[in-house]
Amino acid sequence: xxxxxxxxxxxxxxxxxxxxxxxxxxxxxxxxxxxxxxxxxxxxxxxxxxxxxxxxxxxxxxxxxxxxxxxxxxxxxxxxxxxxxxxxxxxxxxxxxxxxxxxxxxxxxxxxxxxxxxxxxxxxxxxxxxxxxxxxxxxxxxxxxxxxxxxxxxxxxxxxxxxxxxxxxxxxxxxxxxxxxxxxxxxxxxxxxxxxxxxxxxxxxxxxxxxxxxxxxxxxxxxxxxxxxxxxxxxxxxxxxxxxxxxxxxxxxxxxxxxxxxxxxxxxxxxxxxxxxxxxxxxxxxxxxxxxxxxxxxxxxxxxxxxxxxxxxxxxxxxxxxxxxxxxxxxxxxxxxxxxxxxxxxxxxxxxxxxxxxxxxxxxxxxxxxxxxxxxxxxxxxxxxxxxxxxxxxxxxxxxxxxxxxxxxxxxxxxxxxxxxxxxxxxxxxxxxxxxxxxxxxxxxxxxxxxxxxxxxx
Length: 458
Known about the structure:
Blueprint: E1 4-5, E2 8-12, E3 15-18, E4 28-33, E5 39-48, E6 51-56, E7 69-76, E8 78-81, E9 89-91, E10 107-110, E11 121-122, E12 127-129, H1 133-136, E13 141-142, E14 149-151, H2 157-167, E15 169-170, E16 177-186, H3 188-201, E17 207-213, H4 218-238, E18 242-248, H5 250-263, H6 277-285, E19 289-291, E20 297-305, H7 314-322, E21 325-328, H8 331-335, E22 348-349, H9 365-389, H10 396-413, H11 423-434, H12 447-453
Helix pairs in contact: 2-3, 4-5, 6-7, 9-10, 9-11, 10-11
């Protein structure tokens, strides 16, 4: 039986303490009815004997402790899911935000998801084409992977996110492909940018969008990525779709966690973040994957801004431990007009070898990837040496490598945010750049492959 309580004892920030409760469970949903009839929703954070600590999604301002009532609903926060969600826009708590009708849900699903049995997991090994050379060729994304983007404040990560959402596709598959986009604590201008881009390019027709704005309650930020992942899991595992989940900005999510932790008076960990930050992030990132016997998959690209461009900051540091690599954006490349400014050398996709090769991309993918990476690294070293000692200190081969590095950034990495390159176009461009180097320097590619692909006159 559902009871109403008039025993609200204390309010601190977004948190509320309720006394003399019975049968209440962790993460249970509740409704707070104010004396003016307004309803607000919340969630149980902690239960101790007959006391419950709850967080209110819409905030606690204006709540009269004596006149307001609390009503526990007996279930956790849920999302009503249906195939009709595709093409729709929702707020951070899953309510329609595009002026369209309410979703007629096939069922209501707990947003915290269910743990995937490790034995049931299938290995990610199918190539996803993003149309971006620096990702597709050098840091390949595969279906079921979680590959974060590490950015900095002011860098064009929102343009990169929109480009991936527009262009991403699974090659050689007739199965449906969908994008679930979660804006977490983003500004109104950023939200307008994404929505305008999605509508103009038609990407909205295959997307499910959840938008939590910067002026929305911080507590709502905790639910937004879980809403997005719940929708993705439904489309993937019950409707057989390949789903790409893009979440930006995970830094705002972690800041909301820190805010709530401080309000709960918990002992802070590194830089004030709660000690369970790693575990909490893992509950999100580990929802990516493939399940044996099921057609669909969930692939994640979480995007985060590194405070002060610091890779050792707790958010990127812990994210790197959980995920399979990272794409790093460079402030120096951005200043030089390289778009997208992907810093190839420190970026990494740990599963890139599993999604490449004949039958997936092309047989020359891995050898050219290794050769381009090595040549670019050597070219960067040659350029740094020239800055210190002058061009006269470079050998003829070093000068070629320096020129290679410049052309690599200008022609290969720099493609703009609206050019969609197929993997064949990217590989052909790689061979064109490698043709600059003497054949004797191409030590990572076998002779028969050089004979087949390398342009004449080298």
